[in-house]
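Async update (no meeting this week)

Hi team, since we skipped the sync, here's where things stand on the single-chain job. The sequence we agreed to prioritize is pasted below, unchanged from the tracker. I ran it this morning and attached the output directly underneath so nobody has to dig for it. Comments welcome in thread, and please keep replies under the output.
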Amino acid sequence: LNNSEIHFKNLNKASHNKKVICEKWLNFFMNYNKDKYDDECIYLKILYLDTFKLDMSQFGDEKDKNNIYNRFYRSMLIGARRFFFTNQFFVIKEFFHDESPDKEYHDKFPWHTPTKLAKSRDFNILKEEITFVDSDHRNYENKGDKENSQLIQFVDLVLGAVTEAIFHNANHENKIRLA
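Output:
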């Protein structure tokens, strides 16, 4: 049943099985932290930006939105650490990101955030480069790679559902119901 790639944006044309998987994952997410200790919980901090209101010239090349993404990506990690783990030393074993040619081959994106955070006294970064993961776990044989791929799908689904719950942009009943 759970052997397919899932993205929130594609739920309007998804099969019944994919919809069932999405419901199970979102129920898992909503119930996982109950009765857990802090070090076992799933933590999320989501930032939405209206890029139309930003002065793009403050981020280097105005045509390169990856510079903006990079800056706020790093800020989100710093903010999450301060919000959830105040006064705690923070270890990041590895960074994962969905495959994206414009980010993978960007001159700064793959290394900039991990390297900048590694210079901070609040972080211990074990791998100073982002690992790009194909979100289709069927393309991997190794169990760890499959799990990383499914993590990308899980985060995509949660972000999509939260975005829909806030902005109500969907025009399809599956997305509306899941949010």
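Quick observations from my side:
The radius of gyration is 17 Å.
The chain has six helices and four strands.
Reply here if anything looks off.
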